[in-house]
Amino acid sequence: MPTDAPELTYDDASAPFFEGAARGELMLQFCESCEGYMWPVKYRCLHCFAPTVVWRAASGRATLYSLSVVHQAHPRFPGPYVLATVATREGVRFNASLVGENAASTPIGSELVAVFDHTEKPFTVPRFRRVS
C-alpha cells in the first residue's frame, strides 16, 4: 500500500459545506421554492427541480440510521473507525464518521449531534457523536 495519500480538495459547489464545518456549523442545501433540504450537492432542487437552492445552517442534530465498523487501514483513516449513515432533523441522510466512547456499539435510532475537529487537515468535516 502506498504511504502517500493523494491530496484532498473540495470544489466550488461544495465549498459552503466545508467552510461551514470550519466555523463549527453543519451546512445543508435548502430549496427556497419547496422548502426542502437536500444532499448531495446539486444546482437544482432534488424535490421540485427549482433553481432556488441556497445554503443554510442546519440544527446539527441527527438520528443514527445505520453503522459499520471499518477495519481496513488507509493512510488518511487509520482503522478501525465507525462509518455511520445519519438522518438529520432536516430530513437529509448522509454518511459520516461516528465518534466518541463506544461509538461502535451505539444503538440504531440514537440521537446524535455534529462535532467538528478543527485540527483536521486539509479541511474540517462534520462527525457525529451520541447525545449523552
From TrEMBL:
It comes from Rhodococcus wratislaviensis NBRC 100605. Signal peptide: none annotated. InterPro entries: ChsH2_C, ChsH2_Znr, NA-bd_OB-fold, Thioester_dehydratase-like. Pfam families: OB_ChsH2_C, zf-ChsH2. This is DUF35 domain-containing protein. It comes from the Bacteria. Gene3D superfamilies: 6.10.30.10. Residues 18-53 form the ChsH2 rubredoxin-like zinc ribbon domain. Residues 55-117 form the ChsH2 C-terminal OB-fold domain.
